[in-house]
């Protein structure tokens, strides 16, 4: 398996294309600076809803809580994707329990996989949200 630095170098300039677009922000690829959104914007970490993308300074994953995700929890999506950085890590159980208590599912995966899943699920018109940690986190 390639190292994170080798994978990051190979991802520089990678573009993701989707045949169907449900509107709203889409991660179009990866760049050294982070996630390439739509055609021009590159953000190192991002919160995504079906209608908005905003830069985000995430806390350490072990400290992630509802307050850090409030911008994507209302209106309630079907579920949230949490991109945990270069590798999969489990978000805090307290966070998962609190979000699930609101009737919102939580799916964690590495940030590249989460960005790709975002595009696929949005192309299906799914009402989801995402919190993507930096690709090198």
Total discrete domains = 1
**Approximate helicity band:** 25-40%
The mean pLDDT is 87
CATH class: Alpha Beta
Task: Identify the overall geometry.
Answer: globular
**Helix-strand string:** HEEEEEEHEHEHE
Largest sheet: 5 strands, mixed
How would you describe this protein?
With 137 residues, the chain is an alpha+beta fold. It has a single domain (4-132), classed as Hypothetical Protein Mth938, Chain: A (3-Layer(aba) Sandwich), CATH 3.40.1230.10. Helices cover 28% and strands 25% of the residues. It is globular. The two termini are 18 Å apart. Mean pLDDT is 87; it is low at 1-20.
Offer a concise description of the structure:
This protein has 137 residues and is an alpha+beta fold.
Keywords:
137 residues, alpha+beta, Hypothetical Protein Mth938, Chain: A, 5-stranded mixed beta sheet, 4 helices, 9 strands, 25% strand, globular, disordered N terminus
Furnish the topology, listing elements before pairings:
Elements lengths: L3 H8 L2 E2 L11 E5 L2 E4 L3 E3 L2 E3 L4 E3 L10 H8 L5 E5 L9 H9 L3 E5 L1 H13 L5 E4 L5
Parallel strand pairs: 7-8, 7-9
Antiparallel strand pairs: 1-2, 2-3, 3-4, 5-6, 5-9
């Amino acid at each position: 398996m390639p190292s994170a630095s080798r994978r990051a170098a190979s991802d520089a300039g990678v573009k993701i294309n989707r045949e169907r677009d449900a509107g709203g922000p889409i991660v179009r690829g990866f760049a050294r600076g982070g996630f390439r959104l739509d055609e021009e914007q590159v953000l190192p970490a991002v919160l995504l809803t079906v209608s908005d993308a905003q830069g985000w300074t995430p806390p350490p994953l072990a400290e992630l809580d509802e307050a850090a995700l409030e911008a994507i929890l209302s209106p309630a999506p079907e579920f949230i994707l949490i991109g945990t950085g270069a590798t999969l890590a489990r978000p805090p159980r307290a966070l998962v329990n609190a979000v699930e208590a609101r009737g919102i599912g939580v799916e964690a995966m590495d940030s590249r996989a989460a960005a790709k899943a975002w595009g696929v699920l949005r192309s299906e018109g799914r009402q989801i949200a995402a919190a993507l940690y930096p690709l090198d986190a």
